[in-house]
Amino acid sequence: MNVTPVPDLPEIREGDDLAALIDERADLDSADVVCVASTVVSKAEGRAHDLDAFPAGPRATEIADRLAEITGEEKDPRFAQAVLEESTDLLIEAPFLLTETRFGHVGVNAGIDRSNVPGSDILLLPKRPDESARRLHDALSVPVIVTDTCGRPFRHGQRGVAIGKAGLPASHDWRGEHDRDGRELGVTVESIVDELAAAANLVLGEGSGGEPVAVVREFELDGFAGSDELFRDVETDFVRQALREWSYARD
Amino acid sequence: MNVTPVPDLPEIREGDDLAALIDERADLDSADVVCVASTVVSKAEGRAHDLDAFPAGPRATEIADRLAEITGEEKDPRFAQAVLEESTDLLIEAPFLLTETRFGHVGVNAGIDRSNVPGSDILLLPKRPDESARRLHDALSVPVIVTDTCGRPFRHGQRGVAIGKAGLPASHDWRGEHDRDGRELGVTVESIVDELAAAANLVLGEGSGGEPVAVVREFELDGFAGSDELFRDVETDFVRQALREWSYARD
Ligand SMILES: Nc1nc2c(ncn2[C@@H]2O[C@H](COP(=O)(O)OP(=O)(O)O)[C@@H](O)[C@H]2O)c(=O)[nH]1
Ligand SMILES: Nc1nc2c(ncn2[C@@H]2O[C@H](COP(=O)(O)OP(=O)(O)O)[C@@H](O)[C@H]2O)c(=O)[nH]1
Ligand SMILES: [Mn+2]
Ligand SMILES: [Mn+2]
Ligand SMILES: [Mn+2]
Ligand SMILES: [Mn+2]
Fold first, then answer.
1. Could you give the CA distance from residue B245 to residue B242 in angstroms, rounded to a whole number?
2. Coenzyme F420:L-glutamate ligase-like domain: from which residue to which, for each copy (chains A, B) (predicted)?
């Protein structure tokens, strides 16, 4: 398996034809998978905004005040307002905001970025990353994953994950397959889009590298059953259930 | 970046010199990173056991009885005993066991496997995966990651993660670095060992493929600050704090 960044992409602006920009610079084969950092998808889709676009309501003001008090840092209530508008569920509201976005992804601050956003205050995630991936897939005729970098419980640091995809399943479903001794497998569902996003993130980085797109070559997608769910429902997610009952209390 | 499985590895048995078996089959360069599935590290280290080695105490029996009642499946109390003996903290005890292992990793059933374990009932994770990685690193003179496949909250399915490493940092620490506009970065700590483990897992698979080792080539490890923590402390992990207060209740 080979993972290579697409070279020489320009700064992406609203309305840019991202598929064409990629296609001109990558010699794509039908067996390739294209991984695109959500940041450039968002830019192309006009998801960069100034904070003035999010006048804070009372809930956002309350949240920002509490965060400011807890962290001792200034917190702009308009940022909290943007997070609330992007979210359908608030999992943690202090000492940071962890929410479920409208499309089902759980992330800190609803995945809103303040890095790599020239000329604007914030960059929202794509509105419907599966549809963004679908449009790129239709234009490029290869499987497409839209990625973001985000944190997780239990383990330090952040890593690349898939937030949308088209043209490939979310997971390799090993159910019914067997191990080396003919036993049914313990691991049943391998989230290949997340593993591909993680691999892509290694070559994209988080900084000023200017490489928002990676092509994965020689990863075999054929010959296995796929399943399509990327995000868990709260009903099967005990961590989310636990967070519902929990609230932050300073010692 | 290139990720390739090491070909023709045999079934690994207790006492096997895993480093020599890898070295004979991989033409390693000093810039390569070797990712080894914990399953073969465990086999080499004699971590395969029969359940008879874990006579169940009252706590394990109580846990297994409750799990059997909830799931409607038979649950062997000796398996619960093995999980307890491998663990220092029980995060979820129903409807499945989520624990912290003695070396700090959080996983279902303390990462104990029942697939790919010929001739024994169960395979425990390596006792100290950082030390396992260190021994392989000393013998192979390249950075080494010991991987496992495990699940996570919020997202469906499992993916490869690092449970031990030597010769490279856990994370690329982007603190102090800047984005394309000179702003300080939002993402600060990228868990490269987990991203490398995820990439490796794509080529290893979960089944009967017989490929427990992958070599990562052309991933640039120089020129950045690293940080070394892999596992979060409970003090900074709000999800773990929430789980402490939570318990499963059937509707
Ligand atoms: N060429 C180009 N690269 C960009 C642009 N925006 C971000 N990048 C690069 O894309 C990569 C990922 O950026 P990041 O901010 O981490 O994106 P995210 O993970 O989707 O939030 C980095 O190498 C950035 O330098 C852009 O508009 N044009
Ligand atoms: N050659 C060889 N391959 C093995 C052995 N044990 C497991 N594998 C392979 O290693 C890969 C990963 O196995 P898995 O059970 O998912 O390991 P885990 O993720 O570390 O728990 C699969 O391709 C297995 O077929 C072994 O003893 N010898
Ligand atoms: Mn982002
Ligand atoms: Mn990123
Ligand atoms: Mn395992
Ligand atoms: Mn595995």
1. 6
2. 9-218
pLDDT at B250: 67
Contacts of A232 in chain B (CB under 8 A): 153-156
Task: State the closest ligand 1 atom to the C-alpha of A118, by its place in the atom list counted from 1.
Answer: 27
Confidence of residue B115 (pLDDT cuts 50, 70, 90): confident
**CATH for the A48-124 domain, from 3.30.70.980, 3.90.1660.10, 3.40.1800.10, 3.40.710.10:** 3.90.1660.10
Residues with beta carbon inside 6 Å of ligand 1? Answer: A 9-12, 37-40, 43, 113, 115-116, 148-149, 204-212; B 180, 187
CATH of region B1-47+128-251, choose from 3.40.50.300, 3.40.630.10, 3.40.50.11930, 3.30.1330.100: 3.30.1330.100
Query: Is the separation of the CB atoms in B152 and A155 below 8 Å?
Result: no
Q: Which residue of A has its CA nearest to B171?
A: A157
Decide: residue A50, CB within 10 A, 0-12 exposed, 13-18 middle, 19+ buried: exposed
Please name the residue whose Cα sits nearest to atom 2 of ligand 2: B210
Number of H helices, E strands in chain A: 7, 13
Structure tokens belonging to residue A210: 């200017």
- Tell me the pLDDT tens digit for each residue of B171-194: 999 988 999 988 888 778 999 999
State in Å: Cα B232 to ligand 3 middle: 22
